[in-house]
Each structure stands twice: as C-alpha cells, then as structure tokens.
Amino acid sequence: MLDKIKALQEEIEQISVSVKEEVEDLRIKYISKKGLISQLFEEFKTVSPEQKKEVGQAINTLKQFALDKINQLKETFESNEQESTGLDLTMPGEAIKLGSRHPLSIVRNEIVDIFACLGFTVAEGPEIEDDWHVFSALNFPPEHPARDMQDTFFIEKDPDILLRTHTSSVQIRVMEKTQPPIRAIFPGRVFRNEAISARSHCIFHQIEGLYVAENVSFADLKQTLLYFARELFGEKSQIRLRPSYFPFTEPSAEMDVSCSICGGEGCNVCKYTGWLEILGCGMVDPNVLEACNIDSKKYTGFAFGMGIERIAMLKFGIKDIRHFFENDVRFLKQFESAQ
Ligand code: PHE
Questions:
Q1: pLDDT digit of tens for each residue in the chain (339 aa)?
Q2: 128: part of which helix (H) or strand (E)?
Q3: Are residues 81 and 107 in the same domain?
Q4: Residue to probe by mutation, ligand 1, list 168, 287, 306, most atoms within 8 Å of CB
Q5: Cα 173 to Cα 35: distance, rounded to the nearest angstrom
Q6: Which of 140, 207, 228, 246 to mutate to test the pocket of ligand 1 (most atoms within 8 A of CB)?
Q7: Is the CB of residue 164 below 6 angstroms from any atom belonging to ligand 1?
C-alpha cells in the first residue's frame, strides 16, 4: 500500500496542464469522492493495525499534497488570465461620459418653454395620417399640388394614407376633440418627398401653434410672435410680416425676424437683406373651424408653424441640414454645454 501511495505522489508531482479545464479533471480524478485518493481511504480499512499509523499519515500527506498542487495550478491560470486580458482590477474606475441633448431637442425645448409662459400647452398627433387631417379639413382644394405623389409620401391610395407633410394636421385633431378656448403648440416630425441637400431634407421637424377663442385678432398674433422672437433671438429683435398664402389661414403671412448675426446690417447668413424668414402664420380660415364643428361666427383664432431645423441652423451656425440626421458623435458632442 505504501508503494501505491508513493507512486501516486510521484504521478502528481509530474503533472503539468495546458488548459484551465484540465485542472478540474485532475480534481475529479484524485480528490473527488470517487477519486483515487478517496479509494485509498477505502483500502485503508483493510490495513493491519500495526501499519495503520504509518499508512494513515502517508495518505493524509498525499491528499494535502494533491490539494496544494491543484490549487497552485488553478492560481497560475487565474493570474495568467488577468495578464492576458490586460485587466488590472485595482485601477480606479473610468468616469462615466455624459451624453448631450440633440440640437433639435434643445431648440424644441426652448420654444416649448417660451410658449408655456404664454399659457400654451403641448399636444402631439400621429405621423401616419389620412387625407382628411393633412389636407381636406385644412381647406386644401382637391387639385392642390401638395396632394401629388411628388410632394407627399403616400403609404396607401384610396383611401389615402400618408406621412404628414406638416404639423397642421394636429390642429385638426385637437379642434375635433376640444371646443375653444384652445391654446396649444404641437411639435413633431414631418415628411416631404424632396431631394436631400444641404438646405432641405425629406424628414424635418416643425412646431405648430394654435389659439382659438372669442375675439382673437391679428394683433394678438403679431404680439405673440414678437414676444416669441425676442425671447428666442434676443430683446432687440424686430419682426416683419409679409402677406402670403396658405389654404387654412386667411389672411396669411410669413414672418421674418431681424438677422441676429449682423443685427440687421446685412451679412451672408441673411443674404444681405437683414432679415431671416422664420415661420408661416395667419388667422384660422372659418372653413377649417367649421370642418371641426367649431362655430366660426363665435370663435376666431390664429395659427403659425415653423421649422425647427432652420431655427437650430441659425442659432448654432450649422451650414448643412444633413448633420441633424447622421448622428455623428463629433457633431452631437459639440452641444454638451448647450443644455
Ligand atoms: N403648415 C405650414 C407649412 O408647413 C405652416 C403654417 C402653419 C402656416 C400654420 C400657417 C399657419 O409651411
């Protein structure tokens, strides 16, 4: 029996392993319940009483030896692993990098905050719309070019399902559900079938405003827009309204704000006019109120709509609209301090 123990001891001494999994195999082979050393303990029962002391000690020494060897092998693998992954668990942690808001979100939040001060709430509507909410209820005549495939992305024809081309559709959704007074703004994404270039994209964002109540006048519209322009572009800003046309407002206008870059002197951003075109607006056409079951004899209202990209480009001096949609981190992280 002693010879057997000696032989096992020599065997264990010789062991070398190349992969971590083999260490576990060794443990099973020698010291698990059915392992070789455990078998020695079984045999030990048959050893004669005079030999018991010597053999017992030898088995125990062998077992300890095997345990030490296996632990030592295990440790070499664990430290090797650490070296090979280059991990040093004692190093201090890396600081977590904070993200930044998208410039479009920064500008949208700023505009929402300005109108919140005037009591405007925020509402949203679906991006996939029907003809009624995008065109018909907004007084678009049947032959209007916006109803053409060239301008609008249609998903289905007859009945028409399409991607909204403006947030004015949310005016209809809100007026269908609520009777005046209504004072709300609607931010959202819109889609137009346009060639993508530095100045235009097939996706962009708008903020629509709607105020419907008794005795709302064009003067209210003008004063609201002046307040807005001064909050957004600075208190020295001036506005001017140029007559325009939209099917859903009458009269309609386009608003320019004095160029905040040159202060109205003329520069390449305002193309030496001193003015920047910002939004479309007007008094809600009575046909639109009636389409939403609002009494146009009792109520009047104004509406306006602006492109967020354009305002963000002016505010941050961004020259290409495509930057907003590429999500290039080198572009986005420049807005870390903006909000
Ligand atoms: N919907 C118009 C556009 O997309 C903007 C607008 C909104 C004009 C509300 C007047 C009133 O150009």
A1: 888 888 888 888 888 877 778 888 888 888 888 888 888 888 888 888 888 888 888 888 888 888 888 888 888 777 766 666 777 888 888 888 878 899 999 999 999 999 999 999 999 999 999 999 999 999 999 888 878 777 899 999 888 999 999 999 999 999 999 999 999 999 999 999 999 998 899 999 999 999 999 999 999 999 999 999 999 999 999 999 999 999 999 999 999 999 888 888 888 888 899 999 999 999 999 999 999 999 999 999 999 999 999 999 988 989 899 999 999 999 998 988 765
A2: strand 128-130
A3: no
A4: 168
A5: 78
A6: 246
A7: no
Could you tell me the distance, in angstroms and rounded to a whole number, from the CA of residue 304 to the centre of ligand 1? 6
Q: Does residue 181 sit in the same domain as residue 277? A: yes
Instruction: Note every long-range contact of 4-10, with CB atoms under 8 Å and residues 24 or more positions apart, other chains counting.
Output: 4/40, 5/40, 5/55, 5/58, 5/59, 5/62, 8/36, 8/37, 8/40, 8/62, 9/62, 9/65
Question: Could you identify the atom of ligand 1 that is nearest to the CA of residue 305?
Answer: 7
156 and 48, same domain (yes or no): no
Is 117 domain-assigned?
Answer: yes
Q: Answer yes or no: do 69 and 111 share one domain.
A: no
Both 37 and 146 in a single domain? Answer: no
Residues 204 and 269 in one domain: yes
Total domain count, the chain: 2
Measured CA to CA, the distance from residue 131 to residue 145 in angstroms comes to 13
Check pocket membership of 211 for ligand 1, CB cut-off 6 A.
Answer: no
State which residues form the domain around 331: 103-335
208 lines ligand 1 (CB under 6 A): yes
Q: How remote is the CA of residue 267 from the centroid of ligand 1, in Å?
A: 27
Name the residue with the closest Cα to ligand 1, atom 7. 305
Same domain, 62 and 200: no
